[in-house]
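User: Here's a chain of 143 residues. Predict its fold as tokens.
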Amino acid sequence: MKHALILAVSCFATGATAGHELDDRDLINGQTLYVEECASCHGANLEGQPNWRTPDANGVLPAPPHDASGHTWHHDNQLLFEYTRLGGEEALAARGVTGFPSGMPGFGNVLSDGEIWDILAYIQSTWPNRVQEMQAGRNPPHD
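Assistant: Prediction complete.
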């Protein structure tokens, strides 16, 4: 029942917005993959690591939360996808941001593109409607 509710809320919340890459994704698969690949750093409940806003001695920030308290929803879908697929430093460098140390590894050799989108859709499905709508507004309109 919980998964059906998440699916229904996600489809309703993203259907009329610019979150199109996340529309019609497999949220159950996304949740399973999140637990397997992401939870060890980002938390089983998407809570992130303690003191995630404070860099370590090497200037690397701990893994941020992916729940509504974090900043994941501040980014457009494509950046979130690139960050996951390429890793933090490479994704930022591709957008012209260099010299930013990131502890986020790339998962492009571990996860398919579809699996990455499923994970991102699962994460988005956990946010309140208001946050989902704000994040969807950061995406370009659907063609």
